[in-house]
Amino acid sequence: MTPELKPCPFCGAGAEFHDVGDFHAAYYVACTQCVADMGSYRTEAEAAIDWNRRADLCQPKVKPLVWRNEFGCVHTAWVVDGSRYKIDAGKWTNGKVLLTTPDGGPLWPETLEAAKAAAEAHYTAWALDLHKQLFEVTE
Ligand SMILES: [Zn+2]
Q1: pTM of model > 0.70
Q2: Distance from the CA of 8 to the center of ligand 1, in angstroms?
Q3: Could you tell me the distance, in angstroms and rounded to a whole number, from the CA of residue 6 to the centre of ligand 1?
Q4: How close is the Cα of 10 to the center of ligand 1, in Å?
Q5: Cα(46) to centroid of ligand 1, in Å?
Q6: In this structure, what DSSP letter does residue 79 have?
Q7: pLDDT by residue (tens digit) across 97-127?
Q8: Angle at CA 136, nearest 5°, toward 134 and 32?
């Protein structure tokens, strides 16, 4: 069975196996669009493992939010564009947890941990979408 190949991490196009014949290391993977390829391997499976590992490593990673505790019970995380995520959990929210995101909110998660997780998910989605807009190659 031929292993699945992940898209090229540099241009997003598909990848394919090449068989260079009767050599000890006869298989390699190359992008169908750009010049990206990998070294040669004894089997397609070995070639696929390294190709797919590099594709994973090249995926953008979002730094986790860094929360600061302000005024005792307001948790704030500033993000790169100068906007912020804010969690209030105090007497002015009647003990409930209020999450405000840069594009609005408000959300009312059950717990502080749930608020931080929701903010992290919101921020990760925003950052990956921005990365895609900035770096995705289009025809
Ligand atoms: Zn490519």
Answers
A1: no
A2: 5
A3: 11
A4: 5
A5: 20
A6: -
A7: 999 998 877 889 888 899 999 999 999 999 8
A8: 160
Asked if residue 106 has a cis previous peptide bond (ω within 30° of 0), the answer is yes
Q: Give distance in angstroms: CA of 134 to centre of ligand 1.
A: 17
Q: List b or e across 22-59, with b for residues whose CB sees 16 or more CB atoms inside 10 angstroms.
A: eeeebbbbbbeeeebebebbeebebbbeebbebbeeee
Angle at 38 between CA 4 and CA 25, to 5 degrees: 90
Q: Distance (Å, rounded) from C-alpha 54 to C-alpha 95?
A: 47
- d(C-alpha 78, C-alpha 124), whole Å: 14
In this predicted model, what pLDDT tens digit does every residue of 2-47 receive, in sequence order? 789 999 998 889 999 999 887 777 999 999 999 999 999 999 999 9
